Amino acid sequence: MTAQYDGVAGRMAEVERVIGPYRDNVEIPTVLEAIGSLAGTAVLDAGCGTGIYTRLLHQQGAAQTLGVDSSPAMVAAAQETEKRDPLGIKYKTADLIHLEPRGVFGLVTAISVLHYADTKHALHRMCHRLFAHLRPGGRLVAVVRQHRPAHRRRPRCFVRRPAQTRP
Ligand SMILES: C[S@@+](CC[C@H](N)C(=O)[O-])C[C@H]1O[C@@H](n2cnc3c(N)ncnc32)[C@H](O)[C@@H]1O
User: Fold this and answer.
1) Pocket of ligand 1 contains residue 43 by CB under 6 Å
2) Is the four-CA dihedral 89, 70, 135, 143 of positive or negative sign?
3) What is the pLDDT of residues 93-150, one digit of tens each?
4) 37 to each of 32, 40, 43, 67, 106, how far by Cα in Å?
5) pTM confidence score
6) Whether residue 123 has its Cβ less than 6 Å from ligand 1
7) Can you tell me the distance from the alpha carbon of 19 to that of 93, in angstroms, rounded to the nearest whole number?
8) Closest CA relative to residue 83, chosen from 93, 73, 95, 91
9) How far apart are CA 167 and CA 51, in angstroms?
10) Which domains, and CATH codes, for the chain?
11) Residue nearest to atom 14 of ligand 1 (CA)
């Protein structure tokens, strides 16, 4: 995963141009509506990539925002933007599976990240880890892109409360 994204980090502007209309008109408004106000909230953007969402989330009034990604090149690109236009966001290079859970975040986001877990077990581990970063009552908001054609999809909706999923 790291190698894949290290390889494309320099071309993310090109990728964003292609997916921009979908992001701007569908994905971003949906995510922002789902998260609501972030006033005073500590936010972890898990799998932050170049920091597009990290910056958007911070601008919703987050008290502190941390972006984490396993790709050093993606984190470097995010830090470069932060340097050019500082918002006070911190970035860290780490695999989410190994990031020490602190249980302090009011919101954890995983935008287009969970589908990189390549087995059911890996997905379970990843979700478990992400929940462990939440403070009691905190929320995990994830976007998982569906690449199967619409007629082969089974609509599914998962609602889980962090407090019930803690070990
Ligand atoms: C499709 S990009 C999405 C980036 C960002 N969330 C966005 O929506 O612009 C997926 C990102 O997840 C990161 N990623 C995937 N698996 C990860 C893991 N186990 N730990 C940390 N980052 C991971 C990749 O390095 C990549 O930057």
Assistant:
1) no
2) positive
3) 999 999 999 899 999 999 999 988 989 999 999 999 999 999 999 999 999 876 665 5
4) 9, 9, 12, 19, 11
5) 0.87
6) no
7) 25
8) 91
9) 31
10) 38-145+154-165 (3.40.50.150)
11) 47
